[in-house]
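Structure first, sequence second, as always.
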């Protein structure tokens, strides 16, 4: 038997020279990597969806905190306390002292 006959009788050669395999393999490669709806693009979209979902949950938490703050500020005493602490507002003839603590540790 010559060399070509040995190659032709090989089972892998027979499999890969089948007309259906010759058609299906390029089709799968095209669909996985080059098509508009390829696997790579879907993977990027899924990553973007996860990022957007985490952003949505962050903003929902922030909205809940802001609603609680708004509800708390309906009271005039709370509103005054908030204005004094946050915006350093004061009443007439009143002095404000701001005390800052040094939180940096010194390593000697």
């Amino acid at each position: 038997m010559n060399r070509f006959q040995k190659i032709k009788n090989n089972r892998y050669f027979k499999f890969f020279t089948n007309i259906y395999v010759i058609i299906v393999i390029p089709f799968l490669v095209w669909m996985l990597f080059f098509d508009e709806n390829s696997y790579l693009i879907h993977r990027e979209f899924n990553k973007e969806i996860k990022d957007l979902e985490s952003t949505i949950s962050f903003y929902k938490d922030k909205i809940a905190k802001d609603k609680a703050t708004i509800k708390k500020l309906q009271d005039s005493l709370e509103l005054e306390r908030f204005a004094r602490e946050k915006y350093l507002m004061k009443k007439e003839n009143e002095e404000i002292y701001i005390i800052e603590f040094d939180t940096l540790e010194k390593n000697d």
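Margin note: Residues 1-35 form one domain.
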